[in-house]
Amino acid sequence: MKFIHTSDWHIGRQLHNQSLLDDQRFVLNQIVELAKTRDVDAVVVAGDIYDRSIPPAAAVALLDEVVNRLVNELKIPLIMIAGNHDGHERLGFASRQMNDSGLHIIGPLTQEVRPIELKGKQGNAMFYGLPYADPATVRHVFDCEVSTHEEAMAKLLEQVSEHDSQGLPKIVVSHCFLDGGSESESERPLSIGGADKVSPKLFNAFNYTALGHLHGPQYKGAEHVRYSGSMLKYSFSEQHQNKSVTLVELDRDGKASFELLPLTAMRDVRIIEGLLADLLEAGKTDLNREDYLMVRLSDKTAILDAMGKLRSVYPNVLHLERTGLMSEGSKVELSRDHIKKGEFDMFTDFFTQVSGEPMTEAQKLAMTSAIDELHKVERTS
Amino acid sequence: MKFIHTSDWHIGRQLHNQSLLDDQRFVLNQIVELAKTRDVDAVVVAGDIYDRSIPPAAAVALLDEVVNRLVNELKIPLIMIAGNHDGHERLGFASRQMNDSGLHIIGPLTQEVRPIELKGKQGNAMFYGLPYADPATVRHVFDCEVSTHEEAMAKLLEQVSEHDSQGLPKIVVSHCFLDGGSESESERPLSIGGADKVSPKLFNAFNYTALGHLHGPQYKGAEHVRYSGSMLKYSFSEQHQNKSVTLVELDRDGKASFELLPLTAMRDVRIIEGLLADLLEAGKTDLNREDYLMVRLSDKTAILDAMGKLRSVYPNVLHLERTGLMSEGSKVELSRDHIKKGEFDMFTDFFTQVSGEPMTEAQKLAMTSAIDELHKVERTS
């Protein structure tokens, strides 16, 4: 069994208000090409297919194109699970009517695990797609007592362990945050306060686990418990990541081996720093001046329309920082602002700034539950 | 070939802010039952599956249930086309992957007509599903000159006429406004100013035309060019309509015969009139007091909390009119307000009321194009 593991396509996502649809089409075409040239038996997408529960119509049309090429033209089966960004009901509509075509979408969580058996040229395998599910959802669907993400995942995996795969290797597809994983700025937290972490050990017993959620390719605990990472850089904090899909091959004993197949973006996402004059000069010969750029200007003097000047050379400057005008302390602060802060921290800052008082414990608690609720509503609306 | 023709499900629609999802599930279950007991070869839904281009998740889940029962459990093929209320890209996602299951969804308009051949116990037939398409869409897709809905439809039907159906009867499925058709308040106009009308003659040559858009069951021009009407009353102006699905049977010569199979609503939609005291008294023995009601009170005196009193007996009063307090003139005016006015008329009234001046021709033109544009954006967003 040989397949491509990818995740976090986030079709329809914007970067600093810039639509990425053309960039996404460009890299999705590469994934289709890789599936073809590497002659894989399947493509697996481990959640966050779309960026929002209600994706724009153009994003739906792009995914439709990709599905038609892979499933109808190349006859390569495609397995997709809903991630925390996806609308589970919307994504899962009519999925039972698609299965025979080779398109397998796992939308809302259901009580019974429905494994997908795929034929491979070198042997078959059983895929267990687990859509993203927070503890409340698992409690509701299974009518059981779980309060952490770890307990919820253990509950779901129990079914996988108990299922008789008729001797076939078991491949789990899941969307969660493994304890110890490296975050970047562009993943929306699964819960506030760290209760979203799941031990990698839960997945040890399976032949392979194809994970989604974290945007940098990595494995945790064991080599066969892996994140493929996103297909594009979705924030400047990912500027040094190398994006790829993971080619997974199971040998006759069900042991997995891996190869990272690099993806090339139509435009890179990167940060450039220096004096305005130097950057403008360098831009003249910069073959990649159409990249999406964050520019950090070290000039210490006022500059009229710095953004306009930069964009005349680098058309896709998305963000400008005047680091030369900041004290060392504020520079660190700003970079932390951009790179690390989630909704809760941003609101706490805002609250303190506006009210002049830090939030009380009761207020923090109210805010935490409001944010959780909003994420839930967004997922199911 | 024997099939059920239905249309204008409008799943997710509200009536005066009241969710109709339970009512819709109730009547959809009847349609499924009728398909089963009448042993039909197919069910055809002629557009406006959902009420909005972005239906609520619960509406998507309900349609998924219906599709699973019909297509997977009963093995009855289902053909659905996008109407003017539907989001074509969203509805059409992965439709190529569903066809083999017996689920046929015709989403966005494409250049080539893709007929669906269905097997019937008494003979096969060829179904031509034409999604709702305004003249601008037809111009864009076919790169041709059409400016009215009539010309646009003629262009689409040209393909149907030219297609070689191998001797099989041709059944057209379309969503449009036939000239002479009877409107009710709950259909959104296809265009402003009457340019949306299509001659029934265009459809004469086909063995049957299954139409959607108008909510009352009716035929125009010829008996085999038919609207099935909506499955529920979606406005008080439809109170006297009898809702049904149309059972269509083609004989060996391809000639169609019809039977209207009545649908029963969980709660009826109706208007009651009289003095408050009389209505409250009558309500005590009214077995249908849970119906959705518009109440017209003929009392000529002030009444404290009339709505509260009515709802203690009729829990689903959705609208109250104090006709007893109105002069004859304003009564007629009000009823026209509720029953007939589209967005344009409502805005004109509002404008006149606020500005004290009637709209100029230029202002009317601007408003017309703004409304058209909004409908277009809603359909494609």
UniProtKB/TrEMBL annotation, chains A, B:
<feature type="domain" description="Nuclease SbcCD subunit D C-terminal">
    <location>
        <begin position="267"/>
        <end position="354"/>
    </location>
</feature>
<comment type="similarity">
    <text>Belongs to the SbcD family.</text>
</comment>
<dbReference type="GO" id="GO:0008408">
    <property type="term" value="F:3'-5' exonuclease activity"/>
</dbReference>
<protein>
    <recommendedName>
        <fullName>Nuclease SbcCD subunit D</fullName>
    </recommendedName>
</protein>
<dbReference type="GO" id="GO:0004519">
    <property type="term" value="F:endonuclease activity"/>
</dbReference>
<keyword id="KW-0255">Endonuclease</keyword>
<dbReference type="InterPro" id="IPR029052">
    <property type="entry name" value="Metallo-depent_PP-like"/>
</dbReference>
<keyword id="KW-0235">DNA replication</keyword>
<dbReference type="Pfam" id="PF00149">
    <property type="entry name" value="Metallophos"/>
</dbReference>
<keyword id="KW-0269">Exonuclease</keyword>
<comment type="subunit">
    <text>Heterodimer of SbcC and SbcD.</text>
</comment>
<keyword id="KW-0540">Nuclease</keyword>
<dbReference type="GO" id="GO:0006260">
    <property type="term" value="P:DNA replication"/>
</dbReference>
<dbReference type="InterPro" id="IPR041796">
    <property type="entry name" value="Mre11_N"/>
</dbReference>
<keyword id="KW-0378">Hydrolase</keyword>
<feature type="domain" description="Calcineurin-like phosphoesterase">
    <location>
        <begin position="1"/>
        <end position="216"/>
    </location>
</feature>
<dbReference type="InterPro" id="IPR004843">
    <property type="entry name" value="Calcineurin-like_PHP"/>
</dbReference>
<dbReference type="GO" id="GO:0006310">
    <property type="term" value="P:DNA recombination"/>
</dbReference>
<comment type="function">
    <text>SbcCD cleaves DNA hairpin structures. These structures can inhibit DNA replication and are intermediates in certain DNA recombination reactions. The complex acts as a 3'-&gt;5' double strand exonuclease that can open hairpins. It also has a 5' single-strand endonuclease activity.</text>
</comment>
<dbReference type="InterPro" id="IPR004593">
    <property type="entry name" value="SbcD"/>
</dbReference>
<dbReference type="Pfam" id="PF12320">
    <property type="entry name" value="SbcD_C"/>
</dbReference>
<keyword id="KW-0233">DNA recombination</keyword>
<dbReference type="InterPro" id="IPR050535">
    <property type="entry name" value="DNA_Repair-Maintenance_Comp"/>
</dbReference>
<dbReference type="InterPro" id="IPR026843">
    <property type="entry name" value="SbcD_C"/>
</dbReference>
